[in-house]
Amino acid sequence: MQALGGREAEFARRLSVSDKTSRERALKKLRTWLHARSQPSAETFDMEEMMKLWRGLYYCMWMTDKPLVQEDCAQNISSLVHSMATNFAALQFVDCGWLTICQEWHNIDRLRMDKFLMMMRHYLRQNFAYLQKHRWDSELVAEMMTNFSLGILEPTSEEIPTGVQLHLTDIYIPVLGDLAQQEPIPWNVLLQLLQPILGLCAKTDKPVVLKGFCSGVGNALLELSSVHEEDSSKEESMEDGEEVQEEKVVSALRVDHGAIAEAFFALGSDSSVSQKNRSTLYMYKRRFESIAVAHVPSSSTAASTAEDTEETMAERDVSAAAEPMEENMEVATPVKKRKKRRRKLSEDSSGAGSDTPATPGTPQTSQGGDDSPVKKKRIRLSLDSNQIKQFSKKDPIDVSPWKPTSKGGKSLLKNRTPTPITPKMKRILAQSKAKAEAAQQSPSKSPS
C-alpha cells in the first residue's frame, strides 16, 4: 500500500511541472496506469489516493497556457474516466474530480477562471458520455445522479461554492444537447439526468442559484419546443423548394412536456420546499402544461380548430355588419341641420316653380337633403332618438318682467321704504322743471 501511495504521489509531481512535454508524457502514462490499476483483480482505490492524483491533474491544468493547449489539456483530463476498468472506479474518479474543483475554487484567480470553467464543461460532458458508452444503464445512471445530488449539486451544503453550482446551471442543458446530437437520449433517461438539477431548484436557499436555474435550465427547456417548431417549418419550406440559410442546431433534446410538468409538480408539493421555490416550480409546471395541451392528439386538435374557425367566422360577420354602420356614422349629418336644409329646399322649389329645367352638369340633390356633391365626414354623437327629439325641441322663453319676491311669495317692493329727497335734489328738480316750462312757452323759430 505504501508503494502504491508513492506511485500516485510521483504522478502528481510529474503532472505539476512547468514543462509542457513532461506534463503530456505523464498524462499518457497515467492513462495506461489507471486502466491497469482499476482492474477487478487489483486492489480498489482509496479516497486519499484518488485525491492525490486529482491534485496533480488540477495543477496540470493550472500550469497550462494558450487557449488551444488549455482546451486540449481539459479534454485529456476529462477523458481519463473512460480509462477506468470498473464502474466503481469510474464513479470514484468522477466524485473526486468535482470535490477537488470545489476545494480549490476559491484559490483560482480571475486570469485562470476561464480555463477552469471550460474544464468543468468538458468534464461534465465526459461524465454523461461515460453513461452513454454503457448504453444508459439504469443502475449506473441512478448511482451517478445520486452522487450528484449528494455532492456537487447538494442544495444545502455550505462546502459547495455558489459559483460552481451557478456555472453548472448554465452548462447542464447545453452539454446534454451536444451529447444528444450524436445519439438521441431516451426520455426516461433524460428525466433521470434532470433530477439533480431540478432538486437543486427545489431545495436551494440561495436566490442567485434559483435565478440561474430559471435562466439556464427552466427557460432552456421551454425554448426547446420553439426550436423544434422552427426546425419543422424549415423542413417544410425546404421541401417546397425555398432556400433556407443554414443555422446552428441549438439542441437535439426531445422533451415530454407533460412528464416534466408532473416532475415540477411533484417537487413543488413537498412540504419542505420554501414558498419562493414552490412558486417557481409551479410556474414552470403551468407553462409546460400549456405547451402539452397545445400538442394534443389530432381529434382534440380538430375540435379546437373547428372552434377557432367558428369564432373567426363570427368575428368576420360582425366586422362585415359594422362596415356600413361606420360609413353612415362618418357621412351622417346632424338631424337639426338636415331639417333646415329640407325647409330651405322646399322654399327654393316653391319660389322657382316646378317647371324650371335642371341645368346640365349640375348634380341633382336627393331628398335626403345633401345638396353638395362632396360628402363631408362629420362625427355624430351616439344619442338615442328620444334624446335627439328632446334636443330638437325649443323651450318657450319667458319674456315677462322680473318681479323679485321673498321666500314667502310676497313682493319685496311693497315693504320697501322710499328714499328721502334732500334740499339739493329739490333745487335740481325745480330747475329742470322751470327749463322744461320755458321751452314749451317760447315760440318755435320758423325756417328761413
Topology:
Layout: H1 2-15, H2 20-37, H3 47-62, H4 67-78, H5 87-103, H6 113-133, H7 138-150, H8 162-182, H9 187-203, H10 207-239, H11 257-268, H12 275-294, H13 298-331, H14 335-352, H15 385-392, H16 423-441
Helix pairs in contact: 1-3, 3-5, 4-6, 6-8, 7-9, 8-10, 9-10, 9-11, 10-12, 11-12
Which terms summarize this structure?
single chain, 448 residues, mainly alpha, 16 helices, 0% strand, elongated
General description of the model:
It is a single chain. The protein has 16 helices and no strands. About 12% of the residues have low confidence. Helix 9 packs antiparallel against helix 10. Helices cover 65% and strands 0% of the residues. It is an all-alpha fold and 448 residues long.
Oligomer: single chain
The gross shape turns out to be: elongated
- List how many beta strands DSSP finds: 0
Mean pLDDT: 77
Number of distinct helices: 16
Provide the β-strand percentage band. under 5%
Distance between the termini: 162 Å
Structural class: mainly alpha
Give a short summary of the structure:
This protein has 448 residues and is mostly helical.
